[in-house]
Amino acid sequence: MTDLKTDAEKAEEIKQWWKENGTSVIAGVALAIGSVFGWQQWQAHKLKQAEKASALFAKQRSTPSSPETTSTLKTEFAGSPYAALAALSTAKAAAVSSDEQQAKNELKWTIQHSKDALLKQVATLRLIRLTINTQDFASAQSYLKESFNPAFSALVQELKGDLLLAQNQPQEAAKAYRQAIQLSGSNPPQYLQMKLDNLGNPITDGTKGA
User: Which of 86, 125, 145, 163 has its CA 20 to 30 A from that of 156?
Assistant: First the structure.
């Protein structure tokens, strides 16, 4: 006997295998092609959406006090960083215009909707400053309890100092400002030293310094 098969026998085996497995093979190939095509479509869609969001953000930057473009970004592109950046820009414009409530709303929206952790923290820090300025001390204290990126350590201490000073605690404020200066490295902002100097020599341990 021999294990060698004739061409006819091999052809018959191939026909039989294809008859049993051909459908699943075709389905697998079609699925693979469809997956690649679907991925390419999704990537193209994402790129197109990003381009639209970028164009809207550029428009918003030219007119930050106009809420319409920001509203469109927040509604149609809420998950993009452009929406968060537009909200931050609108909040800044509102604060300059003394519209503290709108500024707070935009900052809170960024905190709630942004997928970027750093943008959320930037919004939180700006909201802390705003709540201090509007004497909403309880809210400022609550936000200051959150965790922040080490890059913001000096700013966090500065805001703690601002809050303590607003609450008439100059001694504790001075400590916070000193900590902010230390955390700023070898070249701290001059305004931090000015804030500390403006406190003069706050009472410490119940006695007045020399």
Answer: 86
